[in-house]
Amino acid sequence: MTVGTDQTKRGAVSVVKYKYFLNTSGEKSVSRFLTAPELQCDFEKGLCSWEQEQSGGDVFDWARISGPTPTLNTGPLRDHTLGTGDGHYLFIESSLPQEFKDTAVLLSQVFQPTYQSSRQKKCVFRFHYHMFGLQVFSLAVYLRTTATGLGEMLWEKYGHQGNLWHRETLYLRSAKPFQILIVGTVGDDFNGDIAIDDLSFLDCELYDGKLPPSLVIPDATTPAPTVLPHSCSEGEFVCGIYKECVSLSQVCDFKHDCSDGSDETNCVDERCDFEDGNTCGWKIITYALVLNHAFHWAANQGKTIHYGEQNHRPAVDHTLNSSEGWYMYADSSNGAYGQSTDLQTPVISSTGPLCTLTFWYHMSGFTVGSLQVLVRHRNISDLVWSQTGNQGNKWRQGAVFLGLQNNFQVILRAKRGISYMGDVVIDDVRFQNCSPPLPSNQPCSPEMYACANGHCIPQDNLCDFINHCGDNSDEDPYICKGFSGRCNFEFDLCSWLQCREDDFDWLIKAGSTPTVGTGPSNDHTLRDPSGHYLYLESSFPQGISDTARMIGPLLSSRSSQCKMRFFVHMSGDGIGTLSVFIKADGRLDLLLELTGDQGNYWQMREIPLSHSKDFQVVFEGKVGHSEKGDICLDDITFSPGCLLGPEVSMETTSPPPPGFCPPGHIVCEKEGCYTPEQICDFTENCPDGTDERNCGTSCSFEDGRCGWKSSLADNFDWALGTGSVQSIRPPYDHTLMSENGHFLYLEATPVGLKGDKAHIRSSVWKESSAICKLSFWYYISHKASGTIRLLIKTENDLTEVWNKTGHQGNEWNHVEVPLRKLRNFEVIFEGIRSRDVSGGAALDDLEFIDCAPRAGIPGSCPTVTDFVCQSGHCIESHMACDNKPDCSDQSDEMNCGHIHDSPGACDFNMEEEEWEERCQLFQDAEDDFDWRIGRRTETPGAGPQSDHSAGGGGSFLYIHSAPQREGDVAKVTTRNPFPASIGVCHVRFWFFMHGSDKMGTLKVYTAGPSGTPLLMWAATGNHGNQWKYANVILSNTASFRVTFQAEVGGDMWTDIALDDISYTPECMVAGPVTPHPLTCAEDQFQCTYSFQCISESWRCDGEPDCMDHSDEERCPTVVPGTLPPQDDCPAGHYQCSNDLCIPSILRCDGVLDCPNGEDEYLCPLLKCEPGELVCESSPGCIPLFKRCDGFADCLPFHSDESSCYECPANFCLGRGLCVAENRGPHCRCQPGWTGNRCHVKEKPSVTASPPTTEDTQLDSVYAGIAIGLLLLLAGVAVCVLALCRNKCHTRKHNAMDYGVTYDPDFDPRAELPSVDGRRDGCHGVDSKRNFIPGLSISVYPWRRENEDLNWKDTRMSFSNPLYNYALDVNGADRKSSEA
């Protein structure tokens, strides 16, 4: 056929046009149609009527070319029109300088609307395209009706389409004038050229005009949103329904509080599957400066995947499992390494206690980056979940436990990897169980726990480390007293023990584990980087199948409905096996086994526990086949039905010790005995110091750590080291001033961040004196850096008492910190890194000074609620009137009628038919049998033979087990409810459980109005043939009754008895009972820590008069104030603020003579001898001989030359006679007063009793002074002798002088001798210790102690200062071995 000439094409309005194109077989075909020449283009002579985009809507232009494109293996070899290398076409060049997703836009002419009644034909657009190459991306056609923007997409094609020309026909419809855009997009490599040719329009009419601009309304003219008339107050949200308001705290809380749901309109949806590109309220945040190639989240479908991208993101979504389904993805073809993009929720006002974020993610590709979940509170974001690297070509589930939160945002953050190969994709994001609980107006049912705020929660949710109530009343330590063995691993292993007969140990960790691609981002308890959990490190030096074991507390076979809950995290492609065993009689029975990847989230597991023998739970972790195999545990809890195993009597489980110790005593290592109460009391009761050895005593660190223990949970530690000039440590110690001397210092680690903390702590000290001090030396320099804090941890408080940071000079510095009168406290040194991987700050020569309680004074108690014995000693108030003398003079058991006669208290010394009425107790009608009273039990060999009273002639309450069945229960309950209280009410009683090894259980419950029982205490097993004392804290969020429940054991010899029940006064008033505080007179100073009043004139006089020395603390050097103008008074006078002139001798004399005391302003606080004057211009006192000598020594008021021959008015304050002598006025004071103006209360002699508010009589004063002078002379003599002696003993003894040698058998991890003989279930421990004769007692300095210096062995752990967990005497978290 003949091809028409150019002249023919130009001259015809409508011509027959023949067009060649290559079909799939490569042969020429002919297409014939009618069209106007201006509506067609083959690009042989240019662009015809088409134009390049010039308004900034693209990045580069289409290029016109003939023949093949410049890049091999992409683009056509010839055009479509002629089918030869000479024909022309348009193409986009995908090589440099173009980048991925750069666009080129070609614009058509403007056409008339297609919807016109006169038109019978359809407007058609036809074109040919060529998309050949591995990295071809996309070609699209858009129709727009405005002058800017892309408009509506009509057609789009992605990826490689073969090496041939394709034809596409599009039918165009528009009610407005329109324009066609052809958009080519560059792929992610140079093999991505796209070509177009032979573009034509059929039956389309040109429009004579331009498209209108896009409608843009300036912000200034944006009308304010329409607000319905309302009566809502400030702080309320206006619902869409008239006269309906809700609190702003209810907006965006996943609950429709407005009846029309408008409070949740602009919030994130509870569920989102991203179908149709809907982001459901999630907002896309992009941090790139250039948006054209930004790494950002976008909605997309699997069907848009182009060639080469099929392994980078999923072909189907998770919701529909279809290529038509939608998901959100972050395309790594954009952006650069490390760039991130966020999906962010609006602020969520509140969530429920079980709120969990779940989602599905897809991370496939060789260089895929990471996906993170963050929780943001205002400007603070915490990482709560993360996944990094290739996770395979499949959808995986992620979950984040959010729990109760307020005013926060959730962020899904994608980070780009090092290349384009691997996108981050998410789908099906859901907030599950996130609606906050509604307070109930109905009382809680018996199956529910009543929270303090009125909410009701299932009993199963009690004490599981999750705040279900919203006010933490379900997690209060006192409410959870009955839950044994619970542990969240915040600083130690609680009652869990590491086992030696394994290959390595479980570790405690905060934040993410060291290995990327395995382990959680944070713990389950706190859900932030500061929370700790237990984990098994699977990387080097561990090998495949290495095991780590830990064993729990001994649980009783009498446990019923016992179950254990825990949270486990096992994520990574190298996960091994977690096994849970029950151990009894030396056998291990498998309860649960988890192998392989379980998902990247914390999962709760629950296991029922029971055994015919006392048992323990064992966790065993086994290393998998790669380092990405960390196994993590957190929040282990046991239900109240899990009872601790019985205490084992020491005399029945160990051979008799050498010598004799009474029952309940512990044998000293060398000789002697001590009681558990004498451990860590600042007094050595053993000659060899056994009772104080491991308490964290005074220490020079020359022979070990003296019982100071490190925390397992720290990222680095206080290390024992010697001086070094080259390293960051101090160059020498303080004790020996030698580089060979030892001290504790903050170790530097290869990986460590600023702010990392390390702790060492003492054991729990029983009690200290009112003048107890801790002295120590510290070293912080520019090289040995860090912050050191001294903390005091008591049962309910953690207090900082000292801290120091920054360069303190290249020397050891001394500090002395008053500890005062404390009870049951720990001393903790905290070290903090001041910069990354740093350390070196050091401690040395710790010394407790005058801390033994006997160094205090009678009447000085740790707390104001203490009971003061007649002897002056103090005991805790709940120990008074409990039928157990605790004062040495037994005064705590005197005058106790008000306690013993209170409702519920009972000694059962009455007739059987009277006890319920008189004791205000009642038998439970729904139990199996009843309690009874008697003088002895009915079954020989079971129960007590007499009551608890001293004479043994009274009665007691007991259960007779012989006629009952095993498991039968008897309950007795107080009739009158006690007011609600937490942690202040105590019940004291004596119980007897002796007879059979199959002994049952005794439990104490509190029950509120709903009847829900809360276990407060339980005992099981054989407790020996004796009455045992119990002191139980009772707690309940509502008014409660107290129930004693006894359960029959396995045979007839399981009687259980009770006697002498009493309650503390706090139980009656729902709060601590505080005695009236000591009140001092107006002119007296009340000592801060001891119950004393002293004269105000003794305050800051340089002599401690309070036994706690508080009168000499925080003393200023000068009296604060501003001097009034001094213009109108003559020389030798001082002008007061009211213009009164007083003789200047009254200036700085300690007496307030001006109306406002301004005559003492800016005066130095000095103690001068009688007759001497304090002078503001002199650093010292003006001596008597310089007074009235004609020379003014005290400027500017010349007080030393004032009133030399007269007595100023009221000079002696009415307490003495004023005499004007040659050195000025002088006071002859009455008895009991002293000072230049008789203004100082005379102090009693050293033999007198503590000062009182009454004046001392003259004869007693003179007698006291005489005796005091004698004692003073004797004291001086003793001091001279002591000084002489000390000069001969200033050199510190070498350790070898005491025979100190390394003992390989010594194990600092071994426990103190067990007070109660409880089995650890893991190992028998050798409790031998080296004894070094001739040592000073351990609470004073330089205690030598042979200690194994193996660092792993010295990593003793301790309770988190932020958590109120009691430590047992044995230090249950220390290393022990499996039995």
UniProtKB/TrEMBL annotation:
Q: Which residues cross the membrane?
A: 1261-1284
| All residue ranges annotated as the EGF-like domain in the record | 1205-1239
> Among the entry's GO cellular component annotations, what is one?
membrane
Q: Which Pfam families match?
A: Ldl_recept_a, MAM
- Report the membrane topology from the UniProt record: Single-pass membrane protein
Alphabetized UniProt keyword annotations = Disulfide bond, EGF-like domain, Glycoprotein, Membrane, Receptor, Repeat, Transmembrane, Transmembrane helix
Q: Where in the cell is it found?
A: Endomembrane system; Membrane
Q: List the disulfide bonds.
A: C252-C267, C444-C456, C451-C469, C661-C673, C668-C686, C680-C695, C869-C887, C881-C896, C1100-C1115, C1129-C1141, C1136-C1154, C1148-C1163, C1229-C1238
SUPFAM superfamilies listed in its UniProt record: Concanavalin A-like lectins/glucanases, EGF/Laminin, LDL receptor-like module
- Tell whether Repeat is among the UniProt keywords: yes
Q: What range(s) does the MAM domain occupy?
A: 39-206, 270-436, 485-644, 697-853, 904-1069
Does the record's keyword annotation contain Transferase? no
By what name is this protein known? Answer: MAM and LDL receptor class A domain containing 1
